[in-house]
Design goal:
By secondary structure, this protein is of the alpha+beta class. It has 2 domains: about 200 residues, 3-Layer(bba) Sandwich (FAD/NAD(P)-binding domain), CATH 3.50.50; about 250 residues, 2-Layer Sandwich (D-Amino Acid Oxidase, Chain A, domain 2), CATH 3.30.9. It is built from 12 helices and 20 strands. Strands 4, 5, 6, 12, 13, 14, 15, 16, 17 and 18 form a 10-stranded mixed β-sheet that branches. A hairpin with a 2-residue loop joins β19 and β20. α1 crosses α10, α2 crosses α3 and α6 crosses α12. The longest helix has 21 residues. Bound molecules: flavin-adenine dinucleotide. The site of flavin-adenine dinucleotide has 36 residues, from α1, β12 and β18.
Amino acid sequence: MSKIYNVGIIGAGVSGVVTALQLAKHNIDSVLFEQEKSVVNGPPFCHLHAGGNLYPDISIEQCKLLMKQSIEMARLFPESIDERPTFISVPKTEKYEIAQLTERLDALVSYYKSLIEEDDANAILGKPEAYYKVYSQSDLADLAKQPTVSVPKSADQWMINTLQLIDYSKLKTPVILVQEYGWNLFRLGAQAQLALEKSTYCDLKMQTNVRSIKDVRHENLDYNWEIHTKDQVFKVRYLVNSSGFKTGDFDASLRIKADRLIEFKAAYVSKWQPITGLIPELIFHGERGTPRGMVQLTPYRDHYYQIHAMTNAITLFEKGLVKSDAEIKPEFDKAITQKLKHGWETNEVNERTEKAIASVTHFLPAFESATVGGPPLFGAQQIPGDDPSLRVGEVSFPCKTYARSEIVKASSALTVANQIIHQIQDLGIMSNLGKKGDENALLESVSKVEIDALARQFTLQRGYPEALSQLLIPRKH
Ligand SMILES: Cc1cc2nc3c(=O)[nH]c(=O)nc-3n(C[C@H](O)[C@H](O)[C@H](O)COP(=O)(O)OP(=O)(O)OC[C@H]3O[C@@H](n4cnc5c(N)ncnc54)[C@H](O)[C@@H]3O)c2cc1C
């Protein structure tokens, strides 16, 4: 008789890998399917949203949840966290007021304090009183006279380097520096894959496409689902659908109805000249979907910079946001499907990257000399329900022994994994449910050297500059 797995997981994006790792921690065996050559190979991420400060319109509840979940994920994958701050500004042309942001920031400082009171190890964003700093017009004028610092150690030094480059006459004052860090997807993927390969509880099936699912819950067997791949059938008691924007495909085949949106977006890789001092991530807020949508410049090593600009000509796409009507799974048009399946045409890479560079040049004139640095980081993601501004997605349990993960930000992966484990415990479907194992022993058994090597391999395999696998601010060990 073929093996029966307790849990079958479709998709090894951040959600699937974290679910498999958490299950292993509880001594629950799983089989994890990924159609690609490596894990965490879906839509990209670069920003740890520890406070939601890139989203002026979301509620303080969502901001707090993003902060809590980001801290939890950073504790799990410390080698993927780039400890450089984020500069937040509002151009004079935009409607947002800085006061809107600072009110929320004060609430976040109190919340962060309470997280540290619960557990000292939550202090990953530094001291609560230094979580953010506001700079007035006169502060900026003073700091702009100071010399740059090659590797800044304080908020003021990060700000000095920024002021050497940006045209701050275009910005409202005050501006803000906040401890929202960078998040390296290649390093997170490498650590997760190495840990899963070491795990005796997870059977990781790479380059294995799940073709269909058969519901056998009513056949009185010792398992509930059959997972069909090209040449094998896997029997599982509990099914986790974490297939990203494809969650709807499996729902449709199981005749499960759900409202959802799927969204295709891209970030662009550029290369610039050497500058005298490192800069933080730069945010110039703007109304999403308009020609002045938010511009985000993310620094990497070796003078590479990633750019998002929330306009239809750059990061967003005409028909890039598709809604399902609960009956029919959402589908992208031909042009987007072509990109997802076969990649981009060179001329479109160049055209959109150049527009991205121009959007940055508006605030950072010297960035004009930046050039295309590699292919875009792109992908499609799911948003449960029908609200495109939702930033904290979650898990749902459409029927017994079936969990559907639909996270909107990578930071929600651990919360989702823990909710799935609680449901598995509540259902009592496993007689061999183990006690919680050593705190993150599996992830901690992976060395920095191993992460460096595999993260580098991931960038090269996927056609990106090797520098994207490294942290701007290497961690102290
Ligand atoms: C441009 C862009 C920028 C973003 N930036 C950020 C950011 O800065 N911070 C942040 O927190 N979030 C960010 N996000 C969101 C983040 O990328 C997603 O929330 C997250 O990656 C979703 O993870 P997931 O595991 O749910 O899905 P995915 O990562 O999509 O994983 C699903 C996996 O399932 C696999 N799969 C699908 N079908 C099958 C099948 N039939 N058989 C086998 N395998 C299958 C896929 O290959 C894929 O690996 C960004 C998204 C985009 C598009």
